[in-house]
UniProtKB/TrEMBL annotation:
Family (UniProt): Belongs to the 4-hydroxybenzoyl-CoA thioesterase family.
UniProt KW keywords: Hydrolase
InterPro entries: 4-hydroxybenzoyl-CoA_TE, HotDog_dom_sf
Signal peptide: none
Originating organism: Halodesulfovibrio marinisediminis DSM 17456
Superkingdom of this protein's organism: Bacteria
SUPFAM superfamilies linked to this entry: Thioesterase/thiol ester dehydrase-isomerase (SSF54637)
Entry protein name: Acyl-CoA thioester hydrolase
KW Hydrolase (keyword) present: yes
Length: 151
């Protein structure tokens, strides 16, 4: 059984998005398997798709004078992917009322087996590099829509 990275909260269920991708030649090492440093970029593909679909992508934050740097990232490598494999990458955004974004990721192979999983925590920082302790108004609106079931 796979243990979740984040504790369940009293908030709504996580929001998710899945993207498909094919492993390219440039992404593998001399052993023919995906180089370990590529997996965070796969996570990012799904995270960007999720954020953009919800109106909380990089540029949505940036237009509000906010950036979201990574505070923490973790990757668990379970089974390798190889050149030519097709995989799905799922990003889940977990509920938090704090000024942070907590994402969980699952990469599955063509047999729908989890081959890699991980998480990242992003903080909210102004363009002047001031750490926010409460979410900005536009994100508060997003949280309201999420908690009401509108998303």
């Amino acid at each position: 059984m796979i243990k979740p990275y984040f504790r369940s909260s009293d908030g709504p269920k996580p929001l998710s998005c899945k993207v498909e991708r094919r492993i390219r030649f440039e992404e593998v090492d001399p052993l023919g398997i995906v180089w370990h440093g590529r997996y965070p970029s796969y996570f990012e593909d799904a995270r960007v798709a999720l954020g953009d679909s919800l109106g909380i992508g990089y540029m949505d934050f940036y237009k509000q004078g906010i950036v979201t740097p990574i505070k923490q990232m973790h990757v668990d490598y379970i089974k390798p992917l190889e050149y030519g494999d097709t995989c799905s990458v799922e990003a889940l955004l977990h509920w938090s009322e704090a000024a942070k974004l907590s994402y969980e990721f699952y990469i599955r192979n063509e047999q729908d087996e989890v081959v890699t999983r991980g998480y990242s925590v992003l903080l909210m920082v102004t363009l002047e590099r001031e750490l926010l302790v409460t979410p900005p108004d536009f994100y508060q609106g997003f949280l309201s829509r999420w908690s009401s079931g509108a998303l």
